[in-house]
């Protein structure tokens, strides 16, 4: 993977950014089974403009048939579209998560259910075997065996949307879990100071952690402390972008749930203050890591490239490159190549 390189006058070249968690983008919903392929292509092009060259479209908790249909539609788009090569695999977030308010986040309670390996096999059948990452809660008794089975096939098991105990988290890690999904979010508003499931994951050196760095999901103090605890090497930038990301404020849908993009950049379940993903662009996340967490450019880029590829087991591709300038406003993406093909060039 190409290291960060200064090419002069505040301009840099790096490996293309990788996003392991994207629920939708540019007004396009990846959680609707009938989303048009032309719209998926448009959403991918919008992400090329953010420096992203590989991503895991993310399907969240829903009816079993709808989740399979979403994966089937996305997999078909991957094969049919010139832009589809950017889809490096799929992330299934839920439905095997905590049913409790707080940890469940924006996932609909009606469709939360225990881990089921036969359902996982149906996902893989729908996704042409490209489900590469599954987020679940270790609080379910079935979780350790489920984790053992999916990781034996090379799939990443990630802990998220959980109220698991220390023992349950330890059992999940021993079974093969290696990642924490958007650590610090999908949690209770109030919890014990210690022990709690955030501290347990921060302290577990065998877990890499994903962080949503939009300045909304996590405060700067927690972000700094969490990255110090995990180390930059075990930290990954994710957007958790949902349908309204890259679109104008207003009403959108995430699956069958209405969500609003507010004027101040929050994505919330309609009529509530509950976050439902983010409106974050990946290149802005890189800039935010420098601004909020005090990382160097090299460290921030590493969280969006090398670390993401390793944590998500993203197959390596040559020729994925982004060129950008660093300005007072953040990162200004100028050109993006995927597999050596120019897929975005900023207007002159």
Task: Describe the structure using short key phrases.
single chain; 348 residues; alpha/beta; TIM Barrel; 8-stranded parallel sheet; 5-stranded antiparallel sheet; 10 helices; 18 strands; 25% strand; globular
Which helices and strands, and how do they pair?
Layout: E1 5-8, E2 11-15, E3 17-22, E4 24-25, E5 28-29, H1 37-48, E6 52-60, H2 64-80, E7 90-93, H3 117-126, E8 131-136, H4 143-152, E9 156-159, H5 166-175, E10 179-180, H6 197-203, E11 208-212, H7 220-230, E12 235-238, E13 250-254, E14 257-261, E15 267-269, H8 282-293, H9 297-304, H10 306-312, E16 321-327, E17 330-338, E18 341-345
Parallel strand pairs: 3-6, 6-7, 7-8, 8-9, 9-10, 10-11, 11-12
Antiparallel strand pairs: 1-2, 2-16, 4-5, 13-14, 14-15, 16-17, 17-18
Helix pairs in contact: 2-3, 4-5, 8-9, 9-10
Give an overview in words.
- The protein is an alpha/beta fold.
- The protein has a single domain, classed as TIM Barrel (Alpha-Beta Barrel), CATH 3.20.20.
- The protein contains ten helices and 18 strands.
- The protein has helices spanning 37-48, 64-80, 117-126, 143-152, 166-175, 197-203, 220-230, 282-293, 297-304, 306-312, and strands at 5-8, 11-15, 17-22, 24-25, 28-29, 52-60, 90-93, 131-136, 156-159, 179-180, 208-212, 235-238, 250-254, 257-261, 267-269, 321-327, 330-338, 341-345.
- The strands form four sheets. The protein has an eight-stranded parallel sheet, with helices on both faces.
- β10 (179-180), α6 (197-203) and β11 form a beta-alpha-beta unit.
- α9 (297-304) runs parallel beside α10 (306-312).
